Queue: 4 jobs
Job 1
Amino acid sequence: MTEAAAGAPARGRTDEKRALRLGTRRSKLAMAQSGLVADAVSRVTGRRVELVEITTYGDVSREHLAQIGGTGVFVTALRDALLGGEVDFAVHSLKDLPTTQPENLVLAAVPEREDPRDVIVARDALKFADLPRGARIGTGSPRRMAQLNAYARGHGLDIETVPIRGNVDTRIRYVKDGELDAVVLAAAGLNRIGRADEVTDFLSVDTVLPAPGQGALAIECAADNADLIAALGELDDPFTRAAVTAERSLLAALEAGCSAPVGALADLPPLSAPLERGDLQADGQIVKQMRLRGVVGTTDGSRMVQLSTTGPVLETYDQAMTLGRELAAEMLAQGAAGLMGERAQ
């Protein structure tokens, strides 16, 4: 149910009689993600949750994300609605969040992560490696361009990466209409809107590292709403939060924005291989080490810095932040700064 934002109640203790108002972008994917969160919040609070649709700058701008900076373009309007009392909490794709958290807002929950991988939707159900010479692959992400072009250079493939914008429907239509041979999308998004059957190939994270935080959602609310923070905290997944904190710490230490050609993934190596094979059953394994991988590259794929590090499975915020900063320092020492173009200020 969607309802216009009402007047702002006093915060700090939420009125238990009224529905909670969840701020969300208007896109089909955002609405699907927010709907999942709304159902979960209703279960833990026993209260109705109403979706309040909010238009962000990133939704209306026709410029490519790399041109408008990427950082915060899908987030600012939602945060303004939170601070103005128009909504009680908001749901973001975590990869869209700037790495600096405002003091008056809190990341109340990071639910369990969806599949973080990128996928190909190609004509004739083709795999990435089977695309014809000169294949045109659409993506709006400099990160994806850099890694796809680097892989193609290293494996004798001839591809052209084409910058595109638009929602999932628009992007897949480019393939169906014959304008492009393939597009690259996030597995998590297609899973959440029930279109995973259109995937023709999963890109291994050994080929394309995802964006920091990809596949994870962020549930944000006002820092002074203690009751709601406690309720939303029931949805938090500690491992996902630790992993994305390490990834975002790397991104912040590189001083790179959300649209920079930076990929990062924190995972548990013994449990990652079954996912890559499509086997989600990896129970019973005792894992003591977490791996963090990071990559930065020029969009043509000609120069790349890709490193990894391992450490104990992260248990605290400080441990996660330290792991990310240490890997970023190693990447900067190998020239990563010069591959990102204009760094975030």
Job 2
Amino acid sequence: MTQQPLRLGTRRSKLAMAQSGQVADAVRQVTGRPVELVEITTYGDVSREALAQIGGTGVFVTALRDALLKGEVDFAVHSLKDLPTAQPAELALAAVPQREDPRDVLVARDALKFTDLPRGARIGTGSPRRMAQLNAYARSHGLDIEAVAIRGNVDTRIRYVRDGELDAVVLAAAGLNRIGRIEEVTDFLSVDTVLPAPGQGALAIECRAGHTARDADLVAALGELDDPFTRIAVTAERSLLAALEAGCSAPVGALADLLADGQIVKEMRLRGVVGTTDGTRMVQLSTTGPVPETHDQALALGRELATEMLAQGAAGLMGERAQ
């Protein structure tokens, strides 16, 4: 008897389809069941407003979650950085697979690096976080850039450079890797220059929480794709974001990385940054400690760093604090 295919809910963009396709392959391997992609249009896909204006938080996620709750799909794949920090009780974050490269990258004309851009170079990004850090770096290194707010998929953004409207755009390395276009990158931006968004480079596999035996079985099967180190790191990053009471369109960067001595992982370092989009005022702090062994310890690490950042005035740098 042929098994019913598992229905995977995904956004329709080329990047979403690529990353969902990769997850579908992995799920077929661990479950032995066929997986079919169900394309769902989200509010963030159809709105042309800037993400900061439409709230950012959840605009790419809500329609997928609604389809899960209605039973129209069995599980969904999200870019983790798009997920609101509060997890609904009816849904389980079943797996966070191993993270891709979390860095931001530059795609510039004439194969230019960031530090080689001409005076007055126009750099496109839809992210207040990237704007804040690029402007701060430029100011401290005597560079003169103009950050330009843009929307659109990867193709659209890179076309601005190819058509000469912009000198460069900033994108996530992970996305370009997943759609096979990493060779178009002209500069990988060090995390010391631009801290990524909390959860950047990681995927979230979500399904209904195990209220039925079938749901519980799926939670367990998807859990085989979970990478414990990635989950601990992104939990700390998202805890920092939540404690700053900031949405995913706020100018907040965070990265937790593991510090190893040879093959032995010794500690975790969590870095956070928040700043005004013009880059004139920034709060950037880090903390290093033992690798959290539990979800609660990872949450505590993020909260502790957020408390220090708030004590240094972080709240006043975020504009409207997300409710």
Job 3
Amino acid sequence: MSYKPRFDVLISEVGPRDGLQSVASTMATGHKLAWIDALAASGLQEIEVGSFVSPRLLPQMADADRVVAHAIQHPGLTVMALVPNLKGAEAAMRAGTHKITLPVSASPAHSMANVRKTPQQMVDEVRAIARLRDEIAPRVHIEAGISTAFGCTLQGLVPEDEVIALAVACVAAGADESGLSDTTGMANPAQVKRLFTRLRAELGERAGAAHMHNTRGLGLANCLAAYEAGVRTFDASQAGLGGCPYAPGASGNVVTEDLVFMFEAMGIRTGVDLERLIAARQALAAGLPGEELYGMLPPAGLPKGFEPRKYAA
């Protein structure tokens, strides 16, 4: 299975994991499946459908195995899950997940709060997971997402040299790629362009996704800066749901609808049907009644004369 974009960029929808773990309500499994179906129908190529963690810690993710079993029935869809450790990775692999991502924080303070391991211990976890993957599920793709790459609400500044060194160490340990995450919403476009340029210089094609938050209103600008630095995979969450419970105040992922519109308006193909993507918000709203949904495009609508492209996969 290929994990490279079939179009100009790959939009990786993380709402069913990052979004749902960040709200107080727990979406019923049936509603999750309906939402994922609607997202897949819009042409999204990759969806992060859950997290394999203890249901005691995140009851919202207790049905991850059932959600994966349903999602992998969509032809051509890469089904991704977050795993914090070897136990979660094994569960995700045995469930049939195509791709797993590990949160490897560049901030020791955030790393201890989030996964109770130091950054170096997480590199060791990557190594153990890569060995397990080779034994039981050799086709599974491993991504190490470098959290707090642009700053940490607990620690403050995170040295850029440490961010790049950690990403390189994760790939050396067996990750197929390593991307950068603005977990705390502290990034700015100049910083994003600089760090991703360095990352690509070190890792080449193994430099992974840009995961940006819109906490301070710079999410789209940061995605554009990453694109200009050569990034072609972007995480986003429908309606901007998301955040990190261990990064106080870091609300809101980049809104998928707005990100797709920005790229399409620039002539950069995403393969996503905007009208169907906006319609998928109905399934999200049905599963989380009363939850505030964000985004600039959905209430404003498409500009007059704008023709959403229709794609064949």
Job 4
Amino acid sequence: MRADRMFVYGSIAGLACDLLLGDPRRGHPVAAFGRAAGAVERVLWRDHRGWGALHSLLCAGGAAAAAALVARGARGSSAASVALTAAATWSVVGGTSLGREARAIGGALAAGDVELARERLPHLCGRDPQSLDEQQIARAVVESVAENTSDAVVGALVWGAVAGVPGLVGFRAVNTLDAMVGHLSPQYRKFGWASARLDDVAGWPGARLTAGLTALAGADGRGAVRAWRADAGRHPSPNAGPVEASFAGALGVRLGGTLSYGGRVEHRPVLNAEGRAVEFGDIERAVRLSRRVGFLTLAVCAAGRVTGHALRARRARRRRG
């Protein structure tokens, strides 16, 4: 079986597992990677960019290299390659768990239980929940759904289409390292610099694809494009900006503004300022939009992988001819 078809079949199976089962309950590979990266950090940590870069190289590079070795070992069997791609996709894609957590918070808000919503919010994002009211919690959830659609679904599938199982694993490793050490706390301002920059580079194509597909799948495609073009560059994150702006425009809501994150207060620009304030009902709309974007991403990546194989085969025939 051709490699492009093995990716297509494996990624479809992996996304189906995520849809039906969510994240693995026990022995999650991403959690195991996080523990290993934490152990390496305890050995290497210095308040220095160079040591942080070494940490990123060893952890992300080691994960991608290990995945490449396993993929090479499975190359002799089409069934094994498809199964490995499916397992890797299921492990790194987290769209269903993202939706479940968001809906749980939305359900608490709908029931008027703001304290329960505050209790569950840290499962989804790193905001400080105690000072947030109902509207601010809803806004935080919608922003997290938007950003994690790119990080936990689209970006992984893009790199899987480009580099197979090593691409899937490598992207998730980079994204996990950024979540662990890439923030601007005093401890990680220098040590986490390399992980944060690497995540910016790895996330760039997925974020733009997410924004484009959001405009295609959202209720207000023109609004998504308008907000993306007008506001994305004002966001402090080069990748969260396009994604959150396009979601804001597609949903017709305002995102951004003041937030408390990791013990510090940030005053972010408002995205889609002409939209209305976020309501708890918008959480469900955001989750459904995220799901549609994920399905479209799978179609785009599968088509891209098959088309790329066809173009390479054509060039090969021309050289032989």
